[in-house]
Amino acid sequence: MSAQEWMTAALWAITPTALVGVLFWYTFRSVLRADRTERRVRKSVEQQEEARFAERYGALSDDDRQPTAAAHPASPADGSTQPGHPSDADDAASR
């Protein structure tokens, strides 16, 4: 096998892997850019809504804001449960 034939065979062997790698990179790049853009737009919309609310009803202090679900996990680490809604107690009793 000559050097030129060997190089051609090597090129044909690596081409599919390189193309799949480029496709993988491009797909993830697109996903990450879309996520970044969506977060930026969502933050802008939330700021506009907060400004509109503050203009209409007055500004809220940090104490007046509703707590988020992330601030209060559904089940504490110690395993105790506190029903937050009457149907939660029914579900726990039926288990």
Please explain how this structure is put together.
With 95 residues, the chain is mainly α. The chain has a domain at 20-61. 67% of the residues lie in helices and 0% in strands. The protein has 2 helices and no strands. The chain is rod-shaped, with a radius of gyration of 28 Å. 0% of the residues are buried.
Percent helix, as a range, is 55-70%
Distance between the termini: 73 Å
Tell me which oligomeric state these chains represent. single chain
Strand segment tally: 0
Radius of gyration: 28 Å
Order of helices and strands: HH
Q: Structural class, from secondary structure content?
A: mainly alpha
Any low-confidence stretches, pLDDT <50, length ≥5? none
Mean pLDDT: 80
Strand content: under 5%
For the largest beta-sheet, the strand count, sense and barrel status come to: none
3D shape: rod-shaped
Number of helical segments? 2
In brief, what are we looking at here?
By secondary structure, the chain is mainly alpha-helical. Helix content is 67%, strand content 0%.
List keywords for this structure.
mainly alpha; 95 residues; 0% strand
SSE blueprint and pairings:
Layout: H1 3-57, H2 86-94
